[in-house]
Amino acid sequence: MSNNLIRAYAAMQAGEQLVPYQFDAGELQAHQVEVKVEYCGLCHSDLSVINNDWRSTSYPAVAGHEIIGSIVALGSEAKGLKIGQRVGIGWTAESCQACDPCIGGNQVLCTGENVATIVGHAGGFAEKVRAGWQWVIPLPDDLDPESAGPLLCGGITVFDPLLKHKIQATHHVGVIGIGGLGHIAIKLLKAWGCEITAFSSNPEKTEELKAMGADHVVNSRDAQAIKAQRGKFDLLLSTVNVTLNWQAYLSTLAPNGCLHFLGLTLEPVPVSVGSLIDGAKSVTGSPTGSPLALRQLLQFAARKQIAPQIELFPMSQLNDAIERLHSGQARYRVVLKADFD
After folding, report:
1. Closest to 301 measured CA to CA, from 182, 185, 194
2. Fewest CB within a 10 Å sphere: which of 55, 142, 172, 313?
């Protein structure tokens, strides 16, 4: 077998089950790192790419972007990494390193060559994956590699707003939707020291969410319960992709509070400008995070022993894992263990 031939699982067309697939990755470029995949998280964004929900997929499509593995090859320009080192790769595989956002440390907002790990690029449902060296994130030794993968997408997505909004232990943060993203947010906020309110449509999760770190749990289907939160939150993190009564949630913000979108709600969000002016409130959103933020997250998670709650599947049972995620029953992230050998 050629050194550049990689075994993987690919979607050949939208809506079809994934099948074994091999492709020639070509020569490793000077700025790239090649990583042998050990574990890869399964994210709703993978399903969106597999099914071409965003109309950006080219087939065959190899998804997977919450990757933990070991470096097997380094390009000549790769810096600060070594063969055999355990690392992670998340949503972004490449950025141009020359545009203003890249020069300013905001590589995730790259306006040049910004390549997602699974869009026009082969991802982690494979035995090996490649990425630009700056996006290959060293994994701390005391972070469990089996459960760390979801931190590289779901984790950084909820961690980056804490940095951007300068959240401190004195702040009260609400989390809307407690699934793959929301449960990691609760764990991070607990370690951060914040007061935490979880908004969940499933009251049966209440004790589980409190055990995870939530101080309060509010039924997101109960309009009166939401109204009772008026003026409380310094930051609200929305992880859902459905339309809710956003004006009601804006009323729960404290002065200078922010409603921050992480889940991709497809319908426009109606906002009363008066409600923003009165109280200096804001509505914001963000993608994942920079290589520096990713490094900070993994170091923080290692120090505080924060681990996503996962269900583990062999990668050869990838289609079963996808069905599990589709069912909405996964608690709370699905992780695949590579079993090509």
Report:
1. 185
2. 55
What residue numbers bound the domain in which 162 lies?
A: 155-285
- Model's pTM, two decimal places? 0.95
Q: Answer yes or no: are the C-beta atoms of 241 and 266 closer than 8 Å.
A: yes
Give the span between the Cα atoms of 11 and 341, in whole angstroms: 21
β-partners of residue 91 are none
Residues 335/146, Cβ–Cβ less than 8 Å: yes
For the record, the structure tokens of 155 come out as 């984790």
Contacts of the segment 196-205: beta carbons below 8 A, 24+ positions apart: 196/172, 197/172, 197/173, 197/229, 197/232, 197/233, 198/174, 199/174, 199/175, 199/226, 201/177, 202/178, 205/178
Q: For residues 75 and 340, what is the distance between their CA atoms, to the nearest angstrom? A: 24
149-187 pLDDT, tens digit each? 999 999 999 999 999 999 999 999 999 999 999 999 999
Q: Please state, as a whole number, how many other Cβ atoms lie within 10 Å of the Cβ of residue 307.
A: 18
Instruction: For residue 159, give the CATH number of its domain.
Output: 3.40.50.720
